[in-house]
């Protein structure tokens, strides 16, 4: 018989012998340990999935890569369904992704993307740059923490090659779609100009009426000034030749001229402008114009902004049409050659 290593041979146990007159006392029993038994009620598969499942929670936003393209999976707020969005890192931006999200689910009223420290990311940021770090997606004031899978760091040569490929793709895209893009931009600028002109038309009518009344009031003020100067000259001539002599009126005219010089100097101190008749007329016209605008509730700031937007849109339209003409001339030259 072979003994296992480490096993002990059983020792014989002798029973105690009883002497004459000895009593047998029962040996006290050691209490056995109590075991608490728990019974699971219901389906056992539910408890197993609850304890050991790795299924993604239904409200979590995940980022995965499939065939080299990132997939952003999230739950739509209104339909409560999981939806995947395929992202093109080189061409898609944060603004286009949020717009696709709102187009997919009309229940998305507000959507924005923030960095991990709470700074908002602009809509023009490329998704390739966004997916480099973790970010926060806010949908209808509900914040979702998104963890992006880390990519392997590219070598310097590989990174330079990728930048060259991106630049080449961008140039090819611009060359193939430049004319289409310019025509769309021209159409968009024409619509913008028509819209701005429609907004400016009622304002132009109100402005024309205010300008006419302000011009009339300014002209009346100038004629009033001429009449006062004529009265002053006539009064000085009457006092000089009919009432008093020149010896008496000479110091009076001197002080009148000095007083006028003081008035002109005070005008310069207050307005920081030279006292010229054209400047005085323009200043009085603007004074009457703004006063009338407030009475008729004419928004000067809005009018100026619309005029600036119209000028910018018109200038952009000229540039687009000029580039289209150059492109057409170049195509004609190539056809002739």
UniProtKB/TrEMBL annotation:
InterPro entries: MCU_C (IPR006769), MCU_fam (IPR039055). It is found in: Membrane; Mitochondrion inner membrane. Residues 104-306 form the Calcium uniporter protein C-terminal domain. The chain crosses the membrane at residues 220-240, 252-270. GO terms for cellular component: cytosol; uniplex complex. Residues 1-30 are annotated as: Disordered. GO terms for biological process: calcium import into the mitochondrion; mitochondrial calcium ion homeostasis; negative regulation of calcium import into the mitochondrion. The keyword Mitochondrion applies. Belongs to the MCU (TC 1.A.77) family. This is Calcium uniporter regulatory subunit MCUb. The lineage of its organism: Eukaryota, Metazoa, Chordata, Craniata, Vertebrata.
């Amino acid at each position: 018989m072979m003994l296992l290593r480490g096993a002990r041979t059983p020792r014989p146990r002798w029973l105690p012998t009883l002497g004459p007159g000895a009593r047998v006392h029962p040996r006290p029993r050691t209490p056995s340990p109590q075991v608490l038994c728990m019974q699971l009620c219901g389906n056992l598969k539910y408890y197993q999935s609850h304890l050991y499942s790795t299924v993604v929670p239904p409200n979590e936003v995940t980022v995965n890569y499939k065939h080299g393209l990132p997939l952003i999976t999230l739950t739509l707020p209104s339909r409560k369904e999981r939806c995947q969005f395929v992202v093109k890192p080189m061409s898609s931006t944060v603004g286009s992704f949020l717009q696709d999200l709102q187009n997919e689910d009309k229940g998305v009223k507000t959507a924005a993307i923030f960095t991990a420290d709470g700074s908002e990311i602009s809509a023009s940021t490329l998704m390739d740059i966004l997916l480099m770090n973790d970010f926060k997606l806010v949908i209808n004031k509900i914040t979702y923490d998104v963890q992006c899978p880390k990519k392997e760091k590219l070598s310097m040569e590989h990174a330079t090659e990728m930048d060259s490929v991106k630049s080449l793709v961008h140039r090819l895209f611009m060359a193939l779609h430049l004319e289409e893009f310019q025509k769309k931009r021209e159409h968009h600028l024409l619509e913008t100009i028509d819209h701005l002109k429609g907004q400016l038309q009622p304002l132009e009518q109100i402005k024309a009426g205010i300008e006419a009344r302000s011009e009339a009031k300014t002209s009346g003020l100038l004629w009033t000034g001429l009449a006062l100067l004529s009265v002053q000259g006539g009064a000085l001539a009457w006092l000089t030749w009919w009432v008093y002599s020149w010896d008496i009126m000479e110091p009076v005219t001197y002080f009148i001229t000095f007083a006028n010089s003081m008035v002109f100097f005070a005008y310069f101190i207050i307005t920081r402008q030279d006292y010229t008749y054209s400047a005085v007329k323009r200043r009085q016209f603007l004074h009457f114009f703004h006063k009338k605008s407030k009475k008729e509730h004419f928004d000067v700031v809005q009018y100026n902004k619309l005029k600036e937007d119209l000028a910018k849109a018109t200038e952009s339209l000229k540039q687009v049409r000029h580039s289209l003409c150059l492109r057409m001339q170049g195509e004609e030259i190539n056809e002739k050659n």
